[in-house]
Amino acid sequence: MASLTKDLTAAASAAFSAIGLEARWGDVRRSDKPDLADFQCDGAMGAAKSAGRNPREIASEIAEVLKAYPAVLSAEVAGPGFINLRVSDAVLSARAADILADKDMAGGEPAPDPQVTVIDFGGPNVAKPMHVGHLRSAVIGDTLQRLLKFLGDTVTSDTHLGDWGLQMGHLVTELYDEQPDLIYFDESYTGPYPDEPPVTIEDLGRLYPAASNKAKDDPARNQRSQNAVAELQAGRPGYRALLKHFINVSVAALKVDYAFLNVSFDLWKGESDVDHLIPGLIERFCKAGLAEESQGALIVHVARESDKKEMPPVMLLNSRGGTGYHTTDLATIEDRMMHMHPTAERMLYVVDQRQALHFEQVFRAAELVGLIDEGHLEHIGFGTVNGPDGKPFKTREGGVLRLADLILITTEAVKEKLFREDASTGEFIVHDGLTRAIQEHFSLNRKLGRRSLAKLYVNLMMTFRSMRMKDEWNVRKTSTSFNNIIRKSTLKSEANAMHYFYGLAIDKTKSQLIDTIVGHLLKFNFRALGVFDSSRSSSIILRRLQEYIEELYARPIAVAALRFADLQNTRTTNYVFDIERFTSFEGKTGPYLLYAAVRIKSLLRRAEADGNAPGEIVVGHDAERALVLALDGFGAALLGAREKRMPHILCEHVFGLSQAFSGFYGALPIANESDPALRASRLALATAVLRQLEVGLGILGIDVPERM
Ligand code: ARG
Q1: Which of 386, 408, 434 is the last residue before a domain boundary?
Q2: Ligand 1: residues whose CB is within 6 Å?
Q3: pLDDT (tens digit, 9 = 90+) per residue, 148-181?
Q4: Are 542 and 664 within one domain?
Q5: Atom 3 in ligand 1: which residue has the minimum CA distance?
Q6: Shared-domain flag, residues 221 and 236
Q7: Which run of H or E residues covers position 144?
Q8: Nearest alpha carbon, ligand 1 atom 2
Q9: What number is the ipTM of this complex?
Q10: Which domain holds residue 73?
Q11: From 16, 445, 497, 631, which residue has the greatest number of CB atoms within 10 Å?
Q12: d(CA 131, ligand 1 centre) in Å
C-alpha cells in the first residue's frame, strides 16, 4: 500500500519529467511547517540550477500540474521555489481507512528488494559475563532482525559466541588447579561425554577472573593458559569436552538475560563451531598466493593504495600456530555463505564501532579469497554507552557494569517509581494520585487472620466501589465473585459485605484467600492499589503484591525503558546512561510510549463496554489531519530504518505518532463525542493508531501490556 508521500512524489516526479526535467526532483516529504502545508517539494531549486532556469518559474509550473490531482487541495509556491502542498480531507480519510484495514502491516509497506540476510549480533563471550556494551548489540541487532523480517527479508540471526580465545585456556587451567582429578584432565580421555557439567555458571564467573588476574602479572601462568588453548584448538578430547560444558552452562545463563530483553536468536553458533573449516580455508589463502609468512605467523595483506589510514594485515595463524579472531570470523563467513545459507545475499555484523578496523580487514580478506564480495558484508557499528563523565560506563568501583546488574538497576528504578517504601514513615506508596481514598480504608494493624483478610477484602471493594463513580474503572470486567459482591444491593455496610465475603471464603485456605485478594487487586489499574502501611499484618499481601507488580509491570516497563533509551539514539553516536531519564513516564521514553498505548487501549475498552464501536473515518479537524499524516509516515520510517540500518528512525516515528495522538486526544472528545458518526470515526482513528503503535513498538521489541 502506497503512502501519501509516495503518491505525491510519483505525481511531482511525473510533473518534472513532463517539462523535461529529471524525475528525481519530484521528491515530496512531510512539511517542516505543518501550519502552512501538509507536504513540500523542494526540487525546483535544484532543477533550476542544473537547467539554468528560474526556480520559482519551475515551481509554479509543477504546482499547476499538481493542482489538477483530486487529492491535492492546494499547491503554492513559497520563498525561492518551495512547493507547499495541502491534501484534501477526503484523501486523508481514505488513507486512514486503508491503514486501519491493513491487518498485516498497519500502514507499512514491504521492502521492494527482500533479501536473504544473516545478522550476527549479541557476540557474548563464554564464561565472561555480558556487560553494558553487549546491551547495544543485543538490542540493535534484535530490532534489525524484527524490522527486516517484518518487511519481508529472510533473516537468520546468529549470536556468534566468543568461545575460542584465551578465556577458554584460563578456564581449563584454573579448573585443573581446583579439581585435577576430573576425568577430562586425564590425557587418555576420549569420552564418553557425561551430561552432568563439572561446573556451574557461578564457578565460571569465579574461575575466569581468578585466572585472568593471576595471568596479568605472572607470565608463566599466562603461558599455561595459552598452552591449554593451543591443545584445545589442536583437539585434545578432554578439553573439547570441557569446552562443550562451558558453552552449555554459559548459554543457559545468557539466555536468561537475553530473554529479559526480549532478544532471541535463530542460531547459537560460536567461533569453535568453524574450527573444522580452518585448515581448508588457510589452504585456500595459500593456494591463491595470498598468505605470507611473517615472523613465524601467517598473514594476508589487505592494504590498498587508496587507503588513508593504516591497514594492518590479517593474521591467519599466530606464531604459536594458533588461530584468532580474524581467522574464526573468516571461517564463519565460509560456514554461513557456503554451507548454511548458500543463498545468503547479505551479512550484517552488529558490533561496537571500535571493531571497525577488524571488520574492514576481515571483509577485504573474504573478498580476496573469493568467499563473498565485500559489498555484501556490512559492519553495523554503534557507539558506546557512557557514564555521566562521558567515558564508557563504569560501576562506582570502576569495573565494567554487568548487563544483569544493569537490568536489575533498571527494574529497581522502575519499581521505585511504581511502588516504593517511604523510608521515614515506612509506608508503601503506589505511583500516582488515586491512592488517598484507599489509604483511608486501610488500618490493618492487627494480626492478619482470616478476619482481617476479609476486612481487607471488603475495604478494597468498598474503596473501589466509591471510586468507581469518580474514576475510569470498568468494574464489569472483574471476576464473578467480585462482581457479585458489587452488585449485591445488600452491600450497604461493611458488616453485610463481610458476611457475604465469609460465604465466599468458606472453603479457601489462607493462602488461597491472599491470592484471591491480590488477584482482585491486580484486575484493577495498579494505580488504584493505594498506600499500605508496612506493619507486619499486611506484609504478606504486600510482598505478594510486589512480586506481581514486578512481574506484570516493572519488567515490561524496564524492558521498554532500556530498549527505547538505546534505540532512539542514532546508532553510531555514544550516549550517556541516565537511569532516571530512561525510566521516566514523561518525555521521549519507553515508559511514556507504553503509557500512551495503554491509555488508548483502556479508552477503546471503555468505549466497547459502553457499546460504542469504531465506524467510518471522516477526517475534518486539524488534529485529525495531523494524526493521519503521522500515521501515513509509517511506511517511510520502516523502509528508512531498514535502508540505513538505523532503528532510531522508527523510534522517531512511534514517538511522533504518540504525540500526534496526544494532540488529538487533547483537542477533541473521542468516546465522549456526542455526534455518533464523529464518535465512531474517532474511535476508528484511535484503533488505527493503537495498532500501528503496537506494531511499531513490537518491532522495537517492546510489548504493550493491557493495563499499566
Ligand atoms: N565476541 C566479540 C566481542 O565480545 C563480538 C563478536 C562479534 N561478531 C563477530 N562475528 N566478530 O567483542
Answers
A1: 386
A2: 120, 123, 125, 160, 162, 329, 349, 351
A3: 999 999 999 999 999 998 999 999 999 999 999 9
A4: no
A5: 123
A6: yes
A7: helix 132-150
A8: 123
A9: 0.99
A10: 4-87
A11: 631
A12: 13
